[in-house]
Write a structure and sequence with these properties.
The protein contains 20 helices and 3 strands. By secondary structure, the protein is mostly helical. It is globular.
Length: 473
């Protein structure tokens, strides 16, 4: 027992703990400043958010101690149970939860409310690490890949049913874990490309996007097969069929639009290309290039329907505002506009503690939670924002370093899951406050007001620290 205690005290990453404590202290200061009321100026006044946040920080410290005291093997052995329990809480939230800001993601226990999806992220990181860290796991095998993707997609779908799009998107960050477990880089790049394509399809005509997709896939065809003559021949035939359908039918009083002509031309040539690739044993073309083209064209063709019928009105407006398609500074764009005004007004050194006019005037909605970075930018200025971002960057580097030095695959993949969740939250939260990311409503780790997220982030981090110590036991 004494040896185990010595390992815990000497081997645990105290530098990481110090960053955790610093970020929580910054959070307490920002929560107090963003909710400051001159009529109730005391830090521990019952009517101030800072009083409750202090209690939650104290609870986070107790939780941290509890997490590192537990045997490190517990997290591997009971990952499945914790995942199943978290799923039950999500389902219970769908049935018994109450709605806040349009999202039915809270369970009320009388004296307090919890957001189970925050703890679902911890359970998913553990379960995915257990599934992908199994000795028999092979990412290229469907028998291994399907359960791994199911671990991610199940909480993703349930969270979407709660109308909590921001939290649901966090689960997509686990693609980093699958990449570390052996997922091909081309799959990750393809996912990023499809996101880019969705945005591009909102801004550019479908026919132009289809031409771009076709040329890109032809380039991949040439690079992978080095059959330049066949590729240029395919481009020529597609162009000839398109022009013939678009212009050749006009004398017959028929007019086929350019986009439809392109689709028909590609539909004619696609089976030919597949047969050619199969006969020439070009597996890369048949297994990757052609499916990528089909999915890309499908997204391009259906993006308008998804945008108009699947996304909610406030989500459409936020995307349009972000892309510069339309703007409403007094309506849906108000939050981001006021956030940018607050951050920009801070200048280099900031206005000073409790001197932020935007935050003191409550011009920024949700300024203690989703938009708390405005307080950092306005009162602490550019230098203060750099310090906060620098602390996050050091924390991420520490997490990745800890993950890489793990002996067990489970601990290594869990570490990457922690890094993925933190990175997504930090990048999206700060990005939306400065207007380069859509507003999706996720907290800034350790700084935003709220108990559920603070405790979940603490558990995430300290489980990794315990697994790191566990390799010495």
């Amino acid at each position: 027992m004494r040896r185990r205690s010595n390992n815990l005290l000497t081997k645990i990453s105290w530098s990481t703990i110090m960053i955790w404590l610093l970020l929580m202290i910054i959070g307490l200061v920002c929560v107090y400043a963003s909710g400051f009321n001159e009529e109730h100026p005391r830090f521990f006044d019952a009517r101030n958010h800072s009083r409750l946040q202090t209690i939650w920080v104290g609870m986070a410290c107790i939780i941290a101690v509890f997490v590192v005291v537990i045997e490190s093997r517990f997290y591997h052995l009971f990952a499945g149970f914790l995942y199943f329990l978290a799923l039950l809480l999500i389902v219970a939230t769908l049935i018994f939860g109450h709605e806040i800001n349009g999202s039915k993601s809270w369970l009320s226990f009388g004296f307090m409310s919890l957001q189970p999806v925050e703890f679902m992220k911890v359970a998913t990181a553990l379960m995915l690490a257990k599934v992908a860290g199994a000795h028999s796991f092979r990412m290229q095998s469907a028998r291994s890949a399907i359960p791994a993707f199911a671990v991610i997609l199940l909480p993703f779908a349930l969270t979407l049913l709660q109308h909590d799009t921001g939290s649901a998107l966090v689960f997509t960050s686990f693609i980093i874990v699958l990449y570390r477990a052996g997922l091909k880089a081309r799959f990750v790049v393809s996912c990023l490309f499809l996101v880019f394509l969705f945005i591009l399809s909102l801004l550019v005509e479908p026919a132009t996007v289809t031409i771009f997709i076709g040329l890109l896939c032809c380039c991949l065809f040439m690079i992978s097969s080095r059959r330049y003559k066949a590729c240029f021949t395919a481009i020529g035939i597609i162009a000839a069929i398109t022009l013939t359908l678009h212009f050749g039918l006009r004398p017959l009083d028929a007019d086929l639009p350019l986009f439809e002509s392109l689709i028909v031309a590609h539909a004619v040539m696609l089976p030919v290309i597949v047969i050619y690739a199969w006969r020439r044993k070009l597996r890369y073309v048949a297994a990757f290039v052609v499916p990528l083209f089909v999915v890309s064209v499908g997204i391009n063709y259906s993006v308008d329907y998804v945008f108009d019928n699947v996304l909610k009105e406030h989500q459409r407006r936020r995307i349009n505002d972000l892309l510069g398609i339309e703007s409403d500074l007094k309506g849906w764009g108000y939050n981001v506009h006021q956030s940018k005004v607050a951050i920009g007004s801070g200048g280099i050194l900031g206005k000073g503690f409790l001197e932020g006019t935007q935050t003191k005037g409550n011009f920024v909605p949700e300024q203690t939670t989703d938009f708390i970075f405005c307080t950092v930018g306005e009162e602490w200025g550019f230098l203060g924002a750099v310090v906060v971002v620098g602390l996050y960057l050091i924390l991420l580097i520490r997490i990745v370093n800890i993950a890489e030095r793990q002996k067990s695959t489970f601990a290594k993949l869990y570490g990457y899951g922690v890094a993925a969740i933190f990175f997504f939250h930090i990048a999206v939260n700060i990005g939306m406050t400065i207007g380069i990311m859509p507003v999706v409503g996720i907290p800034l780790p350790f700084i935003s007001y709220g108990g559920s997220s603070l405790w979940a982030f603490t558990i995430l981090l300290f489980v990794l620290l315990k697994l790191d110590v566990g390799k010495y036991e």
